[in-house]
Give the backbone structure.
Amino acid sequence: MDVAITETLAVTMADDRLGILEDATVAAEDGEIAFVGPSSAFDGDPDRTIDGSGRVTMPGLVNVHAHTDLTLLRGGAQDVPEIEWMNRALGPLSEALHPADRIAGARLGVLEALRSGVTTIGEYAGDVSRLVEEVYDPMGVRVVAAETINAVADDGTDGGPDDPYTFDPDRGWAALERNESLFDEYGDHDRVSCLYGPQALDMVPPELLEAIRDRASEHDRGIHMHVAQGDRERRQIEARYGDGETTVSVLEDLGLVCERLLAAHLHGATASERERLADAGVRMAANPSSIAAIDGVTPPIVEYRDHGGIAGLGTDQAPGSGGHDFLRELRTAALLAKTDRTDPTAFPAWTALRVATIDGARALGVADRVGSLEEGKRADVVVYDLDHPSTAPTVTDPLRTAVPNLVYGANTGLVEHVLVDGEVVVDGGEIRTADESAILEAANDRAATIFDRAADEWWAADSTLVDRVADGWL
Ligand SMILES: [Zn+2]
């Protein structure tokens, strides 16, 4: 036995509730969970014992959808109209990123996620293999990687919101080949799995989507795609495919509405379309902070679950959601769901915790390995110390207040230990697999240069933020 967390309040997700065990021990051996049960029944002889008394021990959190390579642009694109966000607010900044900036941003984003108890991230990026190699692998964090497949030409969005983007098909096919080599390279990796990543229906030609569909089917692989992500996309789909066509209707015609599909967003679809997606086994990635910030709407995760669909949560990108603190995302998800439905019982704390763990793992297709504390699963475990000004006190009788306190009060400061594949990645609040101060220093240095490099294009794009600067607000 390598490590045991003893006398803890374990929230295992091993049944259809939270699987709570008081005075429990969770032990790992060879990267696997080897024991979960009452401390009194544990007779292992671990190399290391972590005192879990007064702590909550849970499966590591699963962030289903993130673009951590944009983290250095945090604060650069918020408080603008949705139609401006991608091309006029974020665009000039993201175009100024060099490959090394994306790596430095991903290190910061993954660090933030890890500090909130995340052990698996559904990463979505161009040249994602570099992030896997230089960020995820050395930092010891599990990743489900999708290569962004986008075929929009360099000047392809210049025509305005109602002209279909111009495609450069070669660019899309080259991205698909990068995606293929990802499967070849990481097919046997313990902590890396892969999905196809066609960015969105308005950004990929139908022939390329058909090829992805056929390859996914042939090799039994999943597809991670942004679907129905708002008015900008809706106008593009009508312009390209004709009046009355929607993202979902075209995806149905293309044969992509199926169990292989993990669909990010879905707020631009109708309720009946979402019901059809849920019935077809499409999984949803809801990104509440991001979509509130970019679109001013609440992702329909409650409705999707009501349809019987599987849904996980994601943080999307820092310029939007604000970052990758997954505990903060849980609170945001719960509160937005309540106000959206004017129903304080919507998306309760216990649902938030299941969605953040086992349901997220199901959404990413890795629930056979992670998402719950069960013997035989990989040992991805987080230990929270709730004895903190924002979460204390916690009691266990007559109700266990740790459950709501984790969702409504918790933040990155509560994470004491994180294990991924049985390795202790965060130990007593210290990151063991990366130099935290060096990551922060590089981020600060690089961000100043990036924003400076982007400045001319940023002014020229003339987004609402340009006026806000002129008005003296920013
Ligand atoms: Zn996204």
Remarks:
- The chain has a mean pLDDT of 97.
- The domain at 61-364 is CATH 3.20.20.140 (TIM Barrel).
- Residues 65, 67, 124, 226, 264, 316 surround zinc ion (CB under 6 Å).
